[in-house]
Every structure is written in structure tokens, then in C-alpha cells.
């Protein structure tokens, strides 16, 4: 009997560490054991979260290096309607993924990227009120909402393999600011209208497919900031080329209220990681004035 108890305890203990290792491999579909009450403690379970190339960071213009002669960032296939779109409350965020028939998965290339990066999912980060929420900040300022479009490098063959390389992922980050014009904020409702169906953690819903270009900024040219960083959630792998749009998109107060009704694990009321040390990293500012949306620009180029 005693032996049985000891064996069971050992197996339970062992099982927990195996689950953790498997969870890492399955990211982002697996459930990760972390919360936003104390992001500083992530490093105890996920030591990479304490390394030197972490995200998010403050995008401080003092450290910008301006790039004027780079090839444009190209968006290919984002006009195409996928076979299906799934909206998922994974317990940490609202996530959208889609299924495009094999040769026509949308991808980005150009700008700071060498090769093609395939779209896999997009998700959001927000806070308790409109004064906080974005993960990256620009010259110390937060936005109420930041959207991440996650892409992986085609030549690595799979998302999980790409995670293991310093240039494996390219994430486009879009900032949102409050705008009460119902017409301007309407595109976001293609996603937010389904929040009610996935209010509880782990709920998914299939929705009527639409092309991602319904969001105004997707597929357009804009100036952006780029630096080498990491996933902003455990295990914080340092495999991300960040591309952060200088074009700020609109979201309404009522849309933010709706998003905050999503029930996250640990009763988290926010899901943004605080800014991390920049260390000696450069932030490249890509000036793309060709076809730039003529809307408000934040952190204008100096000089
Ligand atoms: C999406 O469509 C593909 C191909 O038609 C199918 O294999 C897949 O199961 C679908 N996914 C969902 C979640 O419906």
C-alpha cells in the first residue's frame, strides 16, 4: 500500500513536468500555466522569459534607425476568402484562425523579412480600462488595444519548427485607439460580434468566412517599426521579428467593453505583458510613404 502511494506520487510529479514540456511543444493550442497577475514570476517556470531579447518593449524614437530604401512589405493572398474561420477564447486571449486551401495561405514578405511568412492566427491584448492594454508602448504611451498577426517562415516547414529559430516567426502588431465613428469601427465587428459565443475559456465558434482585408489596415502599405524579440507569453521563445505599424486603427469604447466581458483563465482582467528591457537592440523605422493610409500617424519620424 505504501509503495503504491509513493509510486503514485512520483508519477503525479513526473506527469506534471511532462505535461509542461508537452504544453511547450503544442503552443499555441495547449493551455499554458501562467497568469497576468504577476508576469514577473513567469521566469521561474519559463526561464527564457528572463533572457535578453524579450518582448514587448517601449518603441522609443531615441533608438530608431531610419530605413528609407528597403523593399516594401508585401501582403499576398489576404484578399482571399478562407474555407472557414474559427474564433477561439483560449483562456488568455481572443484568437482568430482560418483554413485556406494549401497553395493559397496568406503570407507576408519584404520589408525586414527574408523569405515568406505564412499567416497562422491573430489575437488581441487589452487591459482593465482604456489607459492601458497594448503590450508595446510608443515613447512611453499605451494604447487600449494591440492586435498580433502571427506568421511563420515557410522554409521551416511547420510552425513548431519555426519556433526554434531566431527568425522563425514574424508578428505584425497593430495599435488601436478610441474612435466613436460607427462606420470606422465596423470592420472589427466581423470578429467582435462573436465574443458572446466564446465568453467562457476554451470555447470556439466557426463563423461565416471573410477575407482578412476587411480590417482596413491589412494588406496596405504603412510605415512601421521592426526589432528582434520574443513571444509575449510563456514560454517567451526568442524567435520573433516584430513589425509594428505606425498607422493606428480605430476601436470604440463599446467594443472594448465587449472584449473585456471575455472570461479569461485565473480571472485575469488584462492580458498585456509589461515592457521588457531593450538592452542593446536597435529599432528600425521603415518609412513607406507609398500609398500610406492618410490617417493620424503616431510617433512621427524625427529628422
Ligand atoms: C476547415 O476546412 C477544412 C477544409 O475544408 C477542413 O478540413 C477543416 O476541418 C475545417 N475546419 C473547421 C474547424 O471546420
Describe the structure.
It is a single chain. By secondary structure, the protein is of the alpha+beta class. The chain has one domain (65-286): Alpha carbonic anhydrase (Carbonic Anhydrase II, Roll). The protein contains six helices and 15 strands. It has helices spanning 2-26, 42-45, 159-162, 182-185, 189-192, 253-259; strands spanning 58-59, 64-67, 74-76, 84-89, 94-99, 107-110, 113-126, 137-138, 145-153, 169-178, 204-207, 224-229, 240-245, 249-251, 283-286. Strands 2, 3, 4, 5, 6, 7, 9, 10, 11, 12, 13, 14 and 15 form a 13-stranded mixed sheet that branches. The chain has a two-stranded parallel sheet with strand order 1-8. A hairpin with a 4-residue loop joins strand 4 (84-89) and strand 5. The longest helix is centred in the N-terminal third of the chain and has 25 residues, at 2-26. The protein is globular, with a radius of gyration of 20 Å. The structure holds 2-acetamido-2-deoxy-beta-D-glucopyranose. Residues 1-21 form the signal peptide. Residues 32-287 form the Alpha-carbonic anhydrase domain. It catalyses: hydrogencarbonate + H(+) = CO2 + H2O. This is carbonic anhydrase. Its EC number is 4.2.1.1.
